[in-house]
Amino acid sequence: MHTVGELLREWRHRRRLSQLDLAIAANVSSRHVSLVETGKSQPSADMIIRLAEHLDVPLRERNRLLLAAGFAPRYAERPLTGERLSAAWEAIGRVVRAHEPYPALVVDRGWNILLANRALDPFLAYAAPDLLQPPVNMLRLGFDDRGLAPYLVNLAEVRSVLRARLARQLARAPSPELLALFEEYLGSPFSEGEERTSTAEIAIPMIFRFGGREIRLFSTTTSFGTPLDITLDEVSIESYYPMDDDSAAYFTQPDTAGRTRA
C-alpha cells in the first residue's frame, strides 16, 4: 500500500510539476512538500486537500489520499437517482430534455450512458441489439462495427480527436475500465512523438450518412465546476448541434409515420 507522500508525488509527476511549482501554487514551502512526499512530515487532512486541489486530483482519488494518511474520506459517492442528489438529477434531466429536438446524453467516467433524450432514438435504431443492453456505452456504440461506426463518414478524424480527449481523461483520472475501452476501440496508448491535440477539436464535425443522407453534427461537453460528490464529479453532458440547415431538418421533419423525430 502506498503512503500519502508517495501518492502525492505520483500525482505531481503526472501533472509535470516540480516541488517548487506545487509549493508556490499551494502557498507552502517547497521543503514542506519534500518532507510530505518522503514521509518525514505527516500532513493534516486540510493540507492533503489543499495539495490535491492544486494537483487537480479527482474526488475519488482525494479520498484515497486521505485514507492513506489515516483520515476518513470527505467525499460521498451517492446514486444520482437517490434522494440526496434528486435535485441535481432533476436539473440534469431538464438540461437534456431542453436540448431537443437535438441529441443530448449524460455519461459517467466510463462513458456509460446514464440518460438520453428522444433525439438519440433514430441513431440507436442502427445499432445491434446487444450494444443497447444496459449499460449502453457511448464509445462502444460509436466505434463498434455493429454500432454507428459504418455510418460515420469521418470515422478516422473523430477517432483521432477522441484519442486525444480520452488520453487526457486517463491522465487526470486513471481508470482500468476506460483504459480497456481505449485500447479496444482507439488503439494503443500514444507513441513517442504522436500528435496529441487537434486544432479542430473544439468543433470537430461528426458526419453520419443514413440512406444516402448526411447529418453533420458537432458536440459540446458540460461538467459540474465544483462538485462535492464523487458521482457528480464524474458525470458530463454531451450535447450535439446541427452544422447546417439540412442536418437540423433531419431532427424536425416528420418521419415516415408522420411524427417528428424528437
UniProtKB/TrEMBL annotation:
SUPFAM superfamilies: lambda repressor-like DNA-binding domains (SSF47413). InterPro entries: Cro/C1-type_HTH (IPR001387), Lambda_DNA-bd_dom_sf (IPR010982), MLTR_LBD (IPR041413). It comes from the Bacteria. CDD domains: HTH_XRE. Residues 8-62 form the HTH cro/C1-type domain. PANTHER family: BLL4672 PROTEIN-RELATED (PTHR35010), BLL5781 PROTEIN (PTHR35010:SF4). This is Helix-turn-helix domain-containing protein. The lineage of its organism: Bacteria, Bacillati, Actinomycetota, Actinomycetes, Micromonosporales.
